[in-house]
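Bit of a strange request maybe. I'm writing a small parser for structure token strings and I need a real example to test against, not something I typed by hand. Could someone generate the tokens for this chain?
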Amino acid sequence: MSRNRRVAAAGVVAAIALVASCATADRTPERVVEQGLPTRSLTGQPGGEPASAAGVYAHTGVGDFVAATRHVPYRLYVPESAGHGVSVVDPVTLRVIAYYRTGLDPQHVVPSYDLKTLWSTNDLANTMTPFDPRTGRPKGKAVAVDDPYNLYFLPGGKEAVVIQEARERLAFYDAQTMAPHSVLPVECPGVDHADFTADERFMVASCEFGHRLLRMDVRRKQVTGYLDLPGSAPQDVRLSPDGTIFFVADKKLGGVHLIDAAAFTKTGFLKTGKDAHGIYPSRDGRRMFVSNRGNGTISVLDPAARRVLTTWRLPGGGSPDMGGLSPDGRSLWLSGRYDATIYQISTTDGRLLAKVRVPRKPHGMCVWPQPGRYSLGHTGNMR
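Reply from user aminoacidic:
Good idea to test on real output. This should exercise your parser:
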């Protein structure tokens, strides 16, 4: 994500119109602004379910499909962030089988909480387009949503949280109709990615341009604290399988912050690679994959040991960005943000299995279907 995204919007619109007419621990001090922070965070599953070896991801293993996803065609939904459409890719034939106009600057394709809809967040169009994953096509018209850079869902699935990056606020909508409910302004420039504690009582979000994180009480819809990370540009946020640590990718520092989920403090930093961006847990929860967009690499973390196991390099380089694991967990699909390409990478040894050409600047790709009971948002934060 670039700070100049909004500034450049006029140029993007003009261009489209013209075409149409023609691991080491880091104890760096940080400051926490506390506003009624809890003293601890539960690590059990919602409803008091016992944790398994995969912890919070115990229900996202191979074959853990529910009725809404069991017979859905395997497809890749690739938003064209520099344009105004979504490409649908068949991962078996490695071909773009459809392209649908959605709205200007689609940033992410996000599965709904109930897994029945995929939402394209058309940021500069101020709309979101619903896709039916059973047909792979849009269903109905785009709905009006202000500044939908990213999208998450509150526990229970009744409300959506629209990440309004340019507006510097979190907006709450009806998860089914996308009718607006309320907004929460935040002191956090560039708010863009988030995840939830294991008990889903708190949401932690990154603020790329504010060099900090925020923590929100889900029930009260109030910010309970900010955590400053000097010199940072935080990106994706993912909870560790045991529920104790948030891993936060940092594009500027080229690595991953370790944030204590209970105390909301930084406990360490793992160096991965330039422009660290996306974070994806393996199906068994024993590894996490970090895409390093600036040097064409993917780092493999051991989330339990809090260390980097290895780093894989794409042949010839590239710009691996956002995506997700294949349903069987054997490969990782990532968009090549600056290469008009998507990559399929083996999760066993890091081999590049395939490349597919797509329209310019592919960003928050959704790999669908995914195992899991429900989606908390982004390109597939499943629980």
